[in-house]
């Protein structure tokens, strides 16, 4: 289902779910795509106030990971994206949403922790979560148990929208690179 309704209710629910003192305004979704480790890419989509902000979208050609390792690819995208926020060149989002399960969430968390430790800084008011397909389980940082939101929950619909858009954007870039490679071969 496409999230076409007014997202205000979803954002209020997300703030409650995340136990945040601040409103959830900026959400960044991250996903990776590859086939058998070839033409590996990552994507980042940005939503502001529950709506896509296309000029904030970023795509990444995976440079440091050989073979199939989604966790390492997620970590690379996180490091490459948030180095700019650490340098003060970009804002931190209110929520970083990873497409995947608990392992994907931990990969993103580990990458961020390493970056923060190396820089000696901390981030405030940024939550990290992941959403797994099929069962639509939401994992929050600090909890090893998935959260099952009702299927009609506006917050779940918004998280699915962000996740699906990150997935679509990653797949689109993957197909562009794959087509170029096939033409060159």
Quick recap:
By secondary structure, the chain is an alpha/beta fold. 41% of the residues lie in helices and 23% in strands. The protein has helices spanning 8-17, 70-86, 102-119, 154-184; strands at 26-35, 38-48, 51-52, 58-61, 95-99, 127-132, 137-140.
Low-confidence stretches: none
Average pLDDT taken over every residue: 90
Q: Please trace the helix and strand order, writing H or E for each element.
A: HEEEEHEHEEH
N-end to C-end Cα span: 39 Å
Q: Which short descriptors sum up this protein?
A:
185 residues; alpha/beta; 7-stranded mixed beta sheet; 4 helices; 7 strands; 41% helix; globular
Q: Would you kindly provide a written description of the structure presented here, covering whatever features stand out?
A:
The protein has 185 residues and is of the alpha/beta class. 41% of the residues lie in helices and 23% in strands. It contains 4 helices and 7 strands; from the N terminus they run H-E-E-E-E-H-E-H-E-E-H. The chain has helices at residues 8-17, 70-86, 102-119, 154-184, and strands at residues 26-35, 38-48, 51-52, 58-61, 95-99, 127-132, 137-140. Strands 1, 2, 3, 4, 5, 6 and 7 form a 7-stranded mixed β-sheet that branches. Strand 2 and strand 3 (51-52) form a beta hairpin. The longest helix is centred in the C-terminal third of the chain and has 31 residues, at 154-184. The protein is globular. The model has no long low-confidence stretch (mean pLDDT 90).
């Amino acid at each position: 289902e496409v999230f076409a309704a007014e997202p205000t209710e979803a954002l209020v629910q997300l703030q409650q779910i995340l136990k945040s003192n601040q409103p959830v305004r900026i959400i960044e979704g991250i996903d990776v795509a590859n086939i058998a480790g070839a033409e590996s890419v990552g994507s980042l989509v940005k939503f502001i106030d529950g709506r896509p902000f296309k000029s904030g979208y970023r795509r990444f050609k995976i440079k440091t990971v050989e073979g199939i390792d989604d966790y390492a690819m997620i970590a690379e995208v996180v490091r490459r994206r948030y180095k700019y926020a650490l340098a003060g060149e970009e804002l931190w989002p209110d929520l970083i949403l990873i497409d995947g399960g608990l392992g994907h969430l931990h990969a993103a968390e580990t990458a961020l922790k390493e970056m923060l430790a190396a820089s000696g800084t901390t981030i405030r008011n940024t939550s990290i979560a992941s959403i797994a397909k099929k069962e639509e389980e939401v994992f929050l940082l600090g909890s090893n148990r998935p959260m099952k939101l009702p299927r009609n929950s506006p917050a779940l619909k918004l998280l699915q929208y962000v996740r699906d858009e990150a997935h679509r954007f990653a797949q689109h870039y993957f197909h562009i690179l794959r087509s170029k490679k096939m033409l060159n071969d």
